[in-house]
Amino acid sequence: MFLNAARGRRSAFRDILRDRRAQNHDLGFQFSLSCVADWRSTGSKEAREMALEAARNLLWRYCPQGKYIQAWNARSGQGEDRVQFVAGRMIADTMQNLALLYWAAEETGSSDFSEIANDHALTTARHLIRDDGTSFHTFVFDKVSGKPLRGETHQGYADDSCWSRGQAWMIHGFAQSALATGNQDFLNIAKRLAAKAESLMGSSNVPVWDFGVPKPKSAPRDSSAGAIMAAGIYIIADLVSDDEAPRWKALADRLLQGLLDECDLTGNPQAEGLLAHGAAHVTAGYADTMLPYGDYYFMEALMRSLGHTEFFW
């Protein structure tokens, strides 16, 4: 049933591959959890070729001057402001898309995929992560020279705050990259980001949507940030030494328990998702919602908590 439902969406993924305007940095999200999943589960050659095409298209978004993957596109009719906004911009979320490139490198033997993934990860570490372990959501480069200009936010509270889902994307993304490459530096970055998130959460078990909001106790929570963090921190626990693993597993368990205690909708027959209190884009008015990506990472975290280690990333 699930396989047929997933394959029923394949035409939508073909449409993405046919239309460059429909493509952005999220090709990794989209094709790792659809076509790579199908290839690994069933051996579908069509799914494999679609995933490889998506990985090649993701390479085209690489900006060699700044060594980062361009996040978004400007589309016709959006105006000059949008053109200027997207130009030369990388974002925290893209770390989660590198898995497609690492998979493509392993699948084809071509180092182009892994080299660009590594470049982007290193640029992320250099420019999106502050000295204190907090993070910017986005960073802007001169679109011609690649000169680094400034960190900003798009979905967070302020340019100098720390959007919790951005921190979560990078925790999971660096942990996942460490898993794919064996790079200890990537693992250390994931640990540093996770430790900072733990500190910023205080006594809360579900992250506030932005750690820099003036009144965090009354601000919206983001269950999706908690789910992504939990799944990523379980990866950390699997990669560190036996002596260190309990510390990270305890943090992941705490985040997962917070979701079960405060956000779980599985007992609600009217619910259209698994988790309540997702914060899609608070400053645009989208808070306290059910989010499909929150649900996915909730399931991943639950499975990792039970010892599963084989996933489609």
Describe this structure in words.
The protein has a domain at 164-313: Glycosyltransferase (Alpha/alpha barrel), CATH 1.50.10. It is mainly alpha-helical and 313 residues long. The model has no long low-confidence stretch (mean pLDDT 95). The protein has a 3-stranded antiparallel β-sheet, with no helix packed on it. The chain has a two-stranded antiparallel ribbon with strand order 1-2. The protein has 12 helices and 5 strands. The two termini are 22 Å apart.
Q: Number of DSSP helices? A: 12
The major beta sheet can be summarized as: 3 strands, antiparallel
Q: Fraction of residues in helices?
A: 40-55%
- What are the secondary-structure elements, in order, as H or E? HHHHEEHEHHEEHHHHH
Strand content: 5-15%
| Strands ordered across the widest β-sheet | 3-4-5
**CATH structural architecture of the domain at 164-313:** Alpha/alpha barrel
The stretches of 5 or more residues where confidence is low (pLDDT under 50) are: none
Structural class of the secondary structure composition? mainly alpha
How would you sum up the global shape?
globular
CATH topology of the domain at 164-313: Glycosyltransferase
Q: What is the CATH class name of the domain at 164-313?
A: Mainly Alpha
Radius of gyration: 19 Å
* Number of DSSP-assigned strands: 5
Distance from first to last alpha carbon: 22 Å
Average per-residue pLDDT, rounded, comes to 95
